[in-house]
Write a structure and sequence with these properties.
globular; five-stranded mixed β-sheet; mainly beta; 5 strands; 71 residues
């Protein structure tokens, strides 16, 4: 899917299966300037922040799917 900013300041999230996931744990950080969709794998940290379900061991793969302009 396409990563988006919000809902709180400093959040970077992605929606999947009706849930919002917090991508703050991605290292390296998601490069929003690429403006493409991403495939994310990781584990639930067992908690939810204002940004969504926190993930650990986050791996991001960039896809060739164009997203809207970064926000």
């Amino acid at each position: 899917g396409c990563p988006v900013a919000g809902p709180a300041t400093g959040c970077l999230t992605i929606m999947a299966n009706g849930k919002t996931y917090d991508l703050a744990g991605a290292s390296p950080a998601v490069d929003m300037s690429r403006n493409v969709g991403v495939s994310v794998t990781g584990r639930s940290a067992g908690e939810t922040s204002a940004c969504g379900v926190k993930l650990t061991d986050v791996k991001v793969d960039y896809l060739g799917i164009a997203c809207g302009a970064p926000t």
